[in-house]
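Researcher: I'm preparing a figure for a lab meeting and need a structural model of a single chain. I don't have an experimental structure, so a prediction will have to do for now. The sequence is pasted below. Please return the structure as tokens so I can convert it later.
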Amino acid sequence: HLKSVERMSEADEPLSAVLLQLRAVEKEIAAIEKILLRHRATTAVAELMQKGDPAAADEVLSCVDEALKRD
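Model: Understood. Here is the structure written out token by token.
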């Protein structure tokens, strides 16, 4: 989608169409961020639980919950 925005801009497409395409790019990035965050958090929590640190694991989960609520 990002290349589409570039092509649309170069082709002098209407601003509303370019902005709509930019919003689609933003949504894709946000979805990828969530996937990465969940994956990293899952890995971190598993490692902390193996180390016997459930309090730190809970802290990670709380931080992830807060980050996901902002969306």
